[in-house]
Each structure stands twice: as C-alpha cells, then as structure tokens.
Fold this protein.
Amino acid sequence: MDIVDAAQGVEKLFIEAALANRLSCPNRPSNKYCEECGEEIPEARRVAIPGVRYCIKCQTEMEQIQ
C-alpha cells in the first residue's frame, strides 16, 4: 500500500461518515442561524437542505478543511 492508496482510504471513510450522518437525521429541523458564525441561513437553503446547520460560507470552509 502506498500513500495514494492510504489517502483514498481516508477519503472513502470521510465520505461514508458524511453520508451516514446525513441519512441518520433527515427529519431534523433546519437551523435558522449558522452554528459556526451565527449568520441567518436563507430560507431557500433551509428548505433545499433539510436539517442544514451551517451557512454556505461556513459549510464550504468546513469541507475544505476535511
């Protein structure tokens, strides 16, 4: 196993965890305010993504970190 295989394995685990998290709480109400920065989450986003917890900016930053 080389470093690329290891990286692919880690990436697969992240994706599986994200999907499991998403599937485990689809009925959770969407937050009106972002858990990270406190900004209001637009209604269109809350409707489009049931259970949304973060604004677009914070969600994007969190995904880039992972």
